[in-house]
């Protein structure tokens, strides 16, 4: 069993904690939060130690794995501190606010021979896996263009209740870095194309008490003339299912929320529906997010780490499914959207810094 610890006992943490509890490969030894009531109640619920200072926890407990579930601006410093102690890192998205900090995380984990995994749990959704597989096999022909539509609801009240969301300094942006990041990541994951440039607009239309963007539209141009056009906003009145459409030479693949459909030009149609048995039960009190696969990604990380412990200990980063290096490509797209939107110019990739 790998000894594990978690930093940040907020809203997303139960998905990690329940997953760790369900895994035979992991043992939770400690949790940390600067808010004592959260740290203490989480420790009582999961029967482990609690800390108020993450450095103190990592130095005293020396876990083999740490889960970072804190505000965006802390992911970089926490990942680097853990890596230097030889601790494998699993961080919630986004990797970091700045691209250069994300690069530093990757380099530091490599230098210290620990793995860095990014939580992009939607990559493990059944519809996503199926459509990616069909595109990789070539049954849909060449991908030509994709379209992403995100119309979600994040109220003033939602931002107002948080001591870090809604600020450039701590959240690093709004709808793009926090909500649309999953869908933008999925298009490049499914098509496996290299992004070349970004042109985007960002605006704040409705959240006047906060200065982050709440709408963005734009285009990401990839190799092979493949393009991704996106429209993402978070001032709708409810969270509509995410719409990702990929037009390929031999048909159209569509992901709507957790389900998928492929319409082939020759008239065939395949639907990828979410069945009861696909759903992971995190317990009644755990908030539901888009995608249900935190457990699946976390399980795959622990299994990779265990396998690697007994084989070749030099390749930790290559083994995990959503590695830091892989996450860097999506991080570039996110940062390029902001750079393009703020400076009203086309941004070429890879980003220089
Ligand atoms: N993968 C997903 O679908 C998904 C969904 C929601 C949130 N998230 C991500 O999870 C992360 C956390 O989001 P959240 O909604 O749980 O936020 P949250 O504000 O509910 O929780 C963050 C917690 O971190 C604690 N914290 C802050 N500074 C700390 C420090 N220095 N040391 C220890 N603890 C500290 C806070 O007290 C809080 O309890 C973010 O990166 C967010 O983007 C991912």
TrEMBL record:
InterPro entries: Gfo/Idh/MocA-like_OxRdtase_N, Gfo/Idh/MocA_Oxidoreductase, GFO_IDH_MocA-like_dom, NAD(P)-bd_dom_sf
Record Pfam families: GFO_IDH_MocA, GFO_IDH_MocA_C3
Domain Gfo/Idh/MocA-like oxidoreductase N-terminal: 3-118
Molecular functions (GO terms): nucleotide binding
GFO/IDH/MocA-like oxidoreductase domain residues: 129-253
PANTHER family linked: D-GLUCOSIDE 3-DEHYDROGENASE, UDP-N-ACETYL-2-AMINO-2-DEOXY-D-GLUCURONATE OXIDASE
Protein name per the record: Predicted dehydrogenase
Source organism per UniProt: Clostridium amylolyticum
């Amino acid at each position: 069993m790998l000894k594990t610890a978690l930093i940040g006992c907020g809203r997303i943490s139960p998905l990690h904690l329940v997953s760790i509890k369900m895994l035979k490969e992991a043992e939770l030894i400690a949790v940390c939060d600067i808010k004592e009531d959260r740290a203490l109640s989480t420790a009582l619920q999961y029967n482990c130690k609690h800390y108020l200072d993450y450095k103190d926890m990592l130095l005293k407990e020396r876990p083999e794995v740490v889960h970072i579930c804190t505000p965006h601006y802390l992911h970089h410093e926490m990942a680097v501190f853990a890596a230097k102690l030889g601790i494998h890192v699993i961080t919630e998205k986004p990797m970091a606010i700045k691209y250069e900090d994300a690069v530093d995380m990757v380099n530091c984990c490599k230098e210290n021979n620990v793995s860095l995994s990014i939580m992009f749990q939607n990559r493990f959704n059944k519809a996503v896996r199926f459509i990616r597989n069909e595109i990789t096999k070539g049954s849909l022909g060449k991908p030509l263009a994709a379209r992403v539509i995100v119309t979600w609801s994040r109220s003033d009240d939602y931002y107002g209740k948080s001591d870090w969301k809604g600020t450039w300094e701590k959240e690093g942006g709004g709808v793009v870095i926090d909500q649309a990041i999953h869908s933008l990541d999925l298009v490049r994951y499914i098509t496996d194309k290299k992004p070349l440039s970004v042109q985007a607009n960002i605006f704040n239309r409705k959240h006047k008490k906060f200065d982050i963007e709440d709408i963005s539209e734009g285009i990401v141009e990839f190799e092979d003339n493949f393009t991704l056009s996106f429209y993402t906003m978070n001032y709708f009145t409810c969270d509509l299912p995410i719409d990702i459409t990929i037009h390929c030479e031999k048909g159209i693949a569509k992901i709507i929320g957790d389900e998928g459909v492929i319409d082939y030009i020759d008239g065939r149609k395949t639907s990828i529906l979410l069945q009861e048995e696909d759903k992971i039960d995190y317990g009644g009190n755990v908030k539901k997010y888009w995608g249900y696969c935190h457990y699946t990604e976390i399980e795959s990380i622990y299994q990779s780490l265990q396998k690697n412990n007994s084989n070749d200990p030099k390749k930790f980063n290559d083994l995990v499914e959503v590695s830091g290096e892989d996450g860097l490509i999506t991080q570039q797209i996110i940062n390029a959207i902001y750079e393009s939107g703020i400076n009203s110019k086309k941004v070429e990739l890879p980003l220089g810094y």
